[in-house]
Automatic annotation (TrEMBL), chains A, B:
Gene3D superfamilies: Dihydrodipicolinate Reductase, domain 2, NAD(P)-binding Rossmann-like Domain. The lineage of its organism: Bacteria, Pseudomonadati, Bacteroidota, Flavobacteriia, Flavobacteriales. This is Gfo/Idh/MocA family oxidoreductase. Transmembrane segments: none annotated. GO terms for molecular function: nucleotide binding. It comes from Aggregatimonas sangjinii. Residues 175-294 form the GFO/IDH/MocA-like oxidoreductase domain. It comes from the Bacteria. PANTHER family: D-GLUCOSIDE 3-DEHYDROGENASE, UDP-N-ACETYL-2-AMINO-2-DEOXY-D-GLUCURONATE OXIDASE.
Length: 379, 379
């Protein structure tokens, strides 16, 4: 890891020179001393769908350590609008064909892949090969094998990798982690999370197309519920069982509508989750020996809300989760600070996803898991 | 059923005569016109454990339609204390051997069996044979076969039967039923309930002894979670799967520690529950197409609390659930009003309990259920 840090530092020095020519995009903080640590890193968003448009790009406007430097889109009509709205030079605009030439563009430090799930692996690997740090939107991919390929490509290219797990940078999530870690309410015995919404939109959307999504509610929202079971206990599950429910097969033709899963944790806690594209559910409940912790809403863009059994509220000023997430990753690149959502975390969750699908195929059988501390980040 | 009502009415007339000699126990309401409908019915508690002592007897003090008329105990030392505290005449005190002679005691209208689960069937049947109306504490018994035997005994003796499901008379529960029935938040799509507490007490308590309890968390608390899944959707499940978790086998030697179950309902809703003797959990979440309903706490003695997705609270003045439950049953006997917890309801829940244990034995397999509207009370 030392060599990666050195490489990153050298990169930063090199880009700092360019930075002086692009001050509008890369403000140098006042009082900056040695080095270029406060230079904002340039992010290119790959895929300009609703998440990029509604969350990532607006989040970057106020980010401290990174900014929206470029776009990669398959829809030429979007180019002009985005260039104007975010002051993006033409030189930083790519399509899916010429994307690999981004390697030559030193204004781009990070490539954030926000494409349909089945395209994550290809574009993350191409980004790594172009020498760019990579953020891969969740779910990391549609198989564990693809996660491995992404991780390997990033390691081989000596670039940093994180998964678009915005919750890992959210203060509500981190407050739960703190309360669990410090055993404020004793030992965790039971955790329950729901991550669901009701989908009634365009039946041709990519999320309902297995070839593009790789799965339904479990891949889209279920990874949040898996994550909150894990940060709610502070440990990885040692087994999982699961069930699938279908009530609107005409709409959910190819992808899972509702999945429930149950997990056992090594510290004696048990957990369950429900994820659905046909229900509301946005909750986390962490039950401890001496009390409980609750978030509701828990997995949405905020403002979130929480409370504990002692009658206190969990409350923080609202900030863009996406801004916090990308700033955390930029700082990780710049200073070697914690990577709150490393590739191993995305891979671990995909291992659990595959075990859940296996359990469903095998009629609800309990599937043992041997994850150790994979993907557990103890900040 | 007509004949039962007639018989009950005749009984009441007969007992009204006695009532005048026992005004201290059976106050006649002012303004009472024809008949003896406002005479309080006499209840005998069978088993003077903590639930009788802490909940049922105090609940009866303020009941409007019934009162604590007698006791049946296997502990002679308790007799004097109870007689004094509740002004119970010696003639209304029985032990388990002479219990059947209660048939000759017209001061006792209702026998409430509050013994360990495996003793419910025997004493409910003996009570029915003695010509007394019966309240059987939950769970109704330790098998469906025993439920059938109790129901048959009560039908044969022409006496009324209800299960000690206090929640069915609770205003919070009934508010959820109303909101579900009136589709205030649209159609129910998902329901989740927890009914759990952490048991660390005397390892020799009867609840941990399978011969007396018939099972662990599922029989004790799980029936509440089953009930709230059912009243949360307004329908019986059409299938169930389940898992058992054990983390403290030294303490839970013979009985289930934690069980999770998943259900499908005929109206398209899905449900899950967790019941445990090793976790806190006292919640109901009903997720509908246009909003949600939540109770927390949900299954305890109150005061309960609830809220809905529109920001409103569910709130009622606190009353003893047990008082409401016994008054509802007394009114059912006196006037033919709704029996909110009939024997069929207890039997239905035991069918689900047996299916849950079957699913666990069969590795989490989904067990189909063919319950129709069994035990559903639409008031």
């Amino acid at each position: 890891m030392k060599s990666i840090n050195r490489r990153t530092f050298n990169n930063k020095l090199a880009k700092g020179v360019l930075g002086t020519a692009m001050l509008g995009h890369m403000p140098i903080a006042c009082g900056m001393a040695a080095g270029q640590d406060n230079k904002k890193l340039g992010i290119a968003l790959v895929g300009l769908g609703s998440y990029s448009e509604g969350q990532l790009a607006p989040g970057l406007v106020n980010a401290e350590h990174c900014y929206l430097a470029g776009i990669v889109t398959g829809t030429p009509a979007k180019e002009k609008e985005w260039m104007e709205r975010y002051d993006i030079p033409k030189a930083n605009v790519y399509n899916y064909e010429n994307f690999d030439s981004i390697a030559e563009n030193d204004a781009i430090d990070i490539v954030y892949v926000v494409l349909p799930n089945s395209m994550h692996a290809e574009f993350c690997i191409r980004a790594a090969k172009a020498g760019k740090h990579v953020i891969c939107e969740k779910p990391m991919a549609v198989s564990v094998a693809e996660c491995d390929a992404i991780i390997e490509a990033c390691e081989h290219a000596n670039v940093k990798l994180s998964v678009g797990y915005r919750m890992q940078s959210d203060p509500f999530t981190n407050e739960v982690k703190r309360l669990v870690k410090e055993k404020t309410f004793g030992d965790v015995t039971y955790v329950s999370s729901d991550a669901s919404y009701i989908s009634r939109g365009n039946p041709d959307q990519w999320r309902l197309n297995r070839a593009l999504s790789g799965g339904g509610a479990l891949l889209n929202m279920g990874v949040y519920a898996i994550q909150s079971n894990i940060y709610g206990t502070g440990t990885n599950p040692i087994s999982v069982s699961a069930q699938e429910f279908s009530t609107r097969p005409d709409y959910f033709k190819e992808t899972d509508e509702t999945i429930m899963a149950q997990m056992k944790f090594p510290n004696g806690a048990v957990g369950q989750l429900c994820t659905s594209h046909n229900a509301r559910g946005n909750r986390l409940y962490v039950s401890c020996t001496d009390g409980w912790i609750e978030l509701n809403p828990c997995h949405s863009y905020g403002p979130l809300a929480g409370r504990t059994s002692d009658g206190n509220k969990i409350s923080f000023p609202h900030k863009s989760q996406q801004m916090l997430q990308m700033d955390d990753f930029a700082q990780h690149i710049k200073t070697g600070s914690t990577n709150f959502a490393p590739g191993e975390m995305g891979k671990r969750d995909m291992i659990i996803v595959e075990a859940i699908y296996q359990s469903i195929r095998e009629g609800g059988k309990t599937i043992p898991l041997d994850l150790g501390d994979m993907g557990i980040v103890r900040a």
